[in-house]
Amino acid sequence: MREITHKLAFENAQATTRFSDVFDPNNGTVQARVTLGDKALLDAAVQAAKQAQPAWAAVNPQRRARVMFNFKALVEQHMDELAHMLSSEHGKVIADAKGDIQRGLEVIEFCCGIPHVLKGEFTQGAGPGIDVYSFRQPLGIGVGITPFNFPAMIPLWMSGVAIATGNAFILKPSERDPSVPVRLAELFQEAGLPEGILQVVQGDKEMVDAILDHPDIAAVSFVGSSDIAHYVYKRGVDAGKRVQAMGGAKNHGIVMPDADLDQVVSDLAGAAFGSAGERCMALPVVVPVGEKTAIALREKLIPAIHALRVGVSTDSEAHYGPVVNAAHKAKVESYIQMGVDEGAELVIDGRGFMLQGHEQGFFIGPSLFDRVTTKMRTYQEEIFGPVLQIVRAETFEEALELPSQHQYGNGVALFTRNGHAAREFAARVNVGMVGINVPIPVPVAYHTFGGWKRSAFGDTNQHGMEGVKFWTKVKTVTQRWPDGGASADSAFVIPTMG
Ligand code: NAD
């Protein structure tokens, strides 16, 4: 059996006793097993990081940025290899796997400009003969704990900014698709990153707990489901760490009566079913405003959903591939049954879908529910599969309340031709990332990514300047250079600028 293991700065002499299966979701077979590390392995990785980090922090930012430039070129050269590797463990189609890598690479492009953003602030003459300046220093050792659904993009969100700002970084990727993170770490090393600055430790809860309790780890960035995010946030903060923990989502698409319905249906098909719905910025809830909109939208959605092609992840014609594993498939299908039991109307049932020649693959056909209500658990919870739910609203105000009141607040989209309604919506909706006629409003790398409510714990977003803030601490220096004529009056009162 092929074994996927860690990427460490030292020879790992420890005998591994625990493993986790890595599936081929297209066929439902086990294709490899991943080594699960423990506290002792983490300790050794932290020691290596500790030794390497001061010298890396002392490297001037332009040279650190050059490693980012080299890495970008290497990932571009290896794009096909990485996309196939990613798709074979995750199940997303190749074009989408390339998108996963590319969105991560865009954060690396942002990091190529890190000298500019680390310039700091300076005030000359803040007092008599006094100058004040502030600058950002790295935290030391940071860790990223990442989910299965973006095995390239999310590790790069974190590692790029952490490393470019002078930290050593340890990545704990998802045990469900662990190969791409290791390959990315190899390419970073080839790009000139010193040994010990980026390591990958594989593992599950045991490793996560060891990370959260480790006294030498200064910061933890987590992305995954909300209950685990909350747990990671609380335990990490209790241990005195800086923690950002992004969680689950239930993004709504509000369709106003004046929206271009053909465009909406085309956008919804991709946003609800792309990557088999396994995206935290997927659009699994659509809210038509008014009865006429609901009827017209439903009429157009049904044939569009029937036209979706579900196929193996290497099928270039497929719109989406299998979900990640059998347990996840069973979970999504149980939510479909729950929706039926709760009284929603199952318009299209994706259960029981089978692909010839891949009968054991983790495929689920697309499903559509209508007349879903806020009281239903299938509305309140994240399904994370190829299931679209229609929740009907009478008015704009009622539609605005739905995402605003929901426990999650990651993304939301409004489809309209009315600029006033769009402006009002963007200002008032209680959600972190808003799309106006944009179904998946994932901000570009030099802006910042983060949801609200149970979609994110902590107060700093991913990448852009928020990422730089997360991975650095500010030092402020107040200085004067007296000319030798000492003043006799000691100050016993707090100095003011009055
Ligand atoms: P997950 O919570 O199961 O796993 C995330 C990480 O936590 C993994 O590295 C895993 O090994 C670890 N983990 C799992 N169980 C743990 C436990 N009991 N204790 C400690 N650590 C544990 O999430 P997933 O299924 O890999 O990813 C899908 C979830 O991630 C969805 O909820 C999705 O919405 C969310 N997500 C959110 C964002 C965002 O930015 N808000 C982005 C992508 C995915």
Automatic annotation (TrEMBL):
SUPFAM superfamilies, per database record: ALDH-like
Short name of any one Pfam family annotated for the protein: Aldedh
EC identifiers of the protein: 1.2.1.27
Cited InterPro entries: Ald_DH/histidinol_DH (IPR016161), Ald_DH_C (IPR016163), Ald_DH_N (IPR016162), Aldehyde_DH_dom (IPR015590), MeMal-semiAld_DH (IPR010061)
Top-level taxon in the UniProt lineage: Bacteria
Annotated ranges, domain Aldehyde dehydrogenase: 17-477
Membrane-spanning segments: none
Primary enzyme class: oxidoreductase
GO MF assignments: methylmalonate-semialdehyde dehydrogenase (acylating, NAD) activity
Keyword NAD listed: yes
One example of a Gene Ontology biological process annotation: L-valine catabolic process
Keywords, sorted A to Z: NAD, Oxidoreductase
KW Oxidoreductase (keyword) present: yes
NCBIfam families on file: MMSDH
Designated name of the protein: methylmalonate-semialdehyde dehydrogenase (CoA acylating)
